[in-house]
Structure formats: C-alpha cells, structure tokens
Amino acid sequence: MFSQVCYLRLTTGDRVPVDGEITQGEAWLDEAMLTGEPIPQQKGEGDSVHAGTVVQDGSVLFSRQCGWQPYYAVADYSYGAPGPEQ
After folding, report:
1. Which is more confident, 79 or 45?
2. CA dihedral 67, 77, 31, 48 (to 10 degrees)
3. What is the Cα–Cα distance from 57 to 11, expressed in whole angstroms?
4. Which residue from 55, 33, 32 is spatially nearest to 44, judged by alpha carbons?
5. Residue 42 and residue 36: Cα distance in Å, rounded?
6. pTM assigned to the model
7. Quick one: how far is CA 79 from the chain centroid?
8. Residue from 19, 65, 63, 60 nearest 43 by CA
9. Residue 28 burial by CB count (10 A; 0-12/13-18/19+): exposed, middle or buried?
10. Helices marked H in 1-86 — which ranges?
11. Where is the P-type ATPase A domain (predicted)?
C-alpha cells in the first residue's frame, strides 16, 4: 500500500479535516463537539488533533500517515471550503 506523511497548516478559524499530530507551533482548539468541554484546549508539538475540532487561536503544522484514501478526504474537505468571496 502506498503510504507517506501528509502535512497541513491550520490557522485561526480552520476546522481540522483529519486526525493527526502537531509537528510545529501551538494553538487553542475547540474540542466541544468531541468532549463537551466548552473551554478551548492548548495544543503544541507532539499533541494529537482530532477531525472536526476548530482552531480558536494560533497556527500549527500537523502531520499524519496517509495513503491515497486520507489524501482524498483532505482534498474533498479543501474543495468544499468556501472561497474568499463567499
């Protein structure tokens, strides 16, 4: 099976498209939809991020092992995101 490491940059307001691990930076993530916790959690290098959570403040680079299927999930998410004019 084809496998590689995929990297994505997330900034304030972005929704995490797939589970992964932060490789650079720090951010506060709203995990309420997963945990019910109303207070954003601070995440940094080495911490896990989960699909569906939202970056409240900060910027991170995160990675995940991926083959073609996860790659398409990320592409589909990006394709469906509204552009600057929307």
Report:
1. 45
2. 20
3. 7
4. 55
5. 16
6. 0.70
7. 15
8. 60
9. middle
10. 32-35, 68-80
11. 8-60
